[in-house]
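In the lab's daily routine, each protein ends up as an entry in a very long ledger. A line of letters takes care of the sequence, but it says nothing directly about the fold. The three-dimensional part falls to structure tokens, numbers that each stand for a local backbone shape. The outcome of that step, for a single protein, is printed below.
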Amino acid sequence: MSSTAEDPVMERLRAALARLGPDVLLLTHHYQRAGIVALGHRVGDSYELARAAAENQNARTIVFCGVRFMAEAAEVLRREDQRVVHPEPLAGCPMADMADEGQADSAWRALAAAGAADTVPVVYMNSSAALKAWVGERGGCVCTSSNAQRAFEWALSRAPRLLFFPDEHLGRNTARRLGMADAEMVLWDPAASGGGVSPEALARARVVLWKGFCHVHTAFTVAQVRAARDRWPGARVLVHPECLSEVVQAADGAGSTSFLVRAVAEADPGSTLVIGTEINLISRLAAQYPDRTVLPLHRSLCPNMYRLSPEKLLETLENLDAQPPVELPAHINASAKLALQRMLEL
């Protein structure tokens, strides 16, 4: 649908939000379409939005414009008198589906059998509430790309090793940032017998990584970084830490979605930034800062974030009382809250 055709929809969306007033908090992830981001009461990455859900004192309903695991986190952190609505329940996350509690149990048993039971689990925000609960029950915490380094330091202050899932690349890049060598890490493959790791290697490791990835960020390559430098001499190349480690090493910097947003906001007018992350964010930053050049390292779209259209959000807001809330089993909610609260306390 063209931007002109969307204008009446946007007008109705603004009218609906005005009518609902402070009873509704619209949380919007950076990767959403520009029109939806423009309406958000709070716009941020998964960490910032989780904190916004936990701290809000006024809204009766939290409407979460993001993917399923984000809405689940808001459901865990909300007050008892609030509810969370996810306008597009089909918007999931492939990486979040790359680890489940049964697979985590298998890895946990293998660690114990290898004499490495003294391990703290750390789970990426991009995971199901059930897996967060599994981690919470075992003394671990959640992290995002904004605070992964603090979470790793926290875990390693409590045990000689940590198990991190489900993103191999964020885990490896974070461990390297802490000065660890590749020899101190092992990769657990949940599809392989014994995880594809010997008991001796598990016992020696300081970080046990999980074979999982984000298809948006693994689309970026070192060749693309080199091509960007050739095409735009003097440009600053920045990428997300879910990228392959060799891409992170080739770039000028790597950091969370909020880090990338700040880098553009703080760049000098006339400067050029080439960014390796989701295309909706890059396009919006380019429009927001016309006095600097903001370019994609490569066009990589998150189709699940893109599922939520202005029309779908309008349907939700105009019929809000009829929308089903996000719901989780009580035991999942309670245990996931432990892991999320530990993250918020880092």
The radius of gyration is 21 Å. Residues 51 and 344 are 7 Å apart (CA to CA). The longest helix spans residues 3-20. The first strand starts at residue 24 and ends at 29.
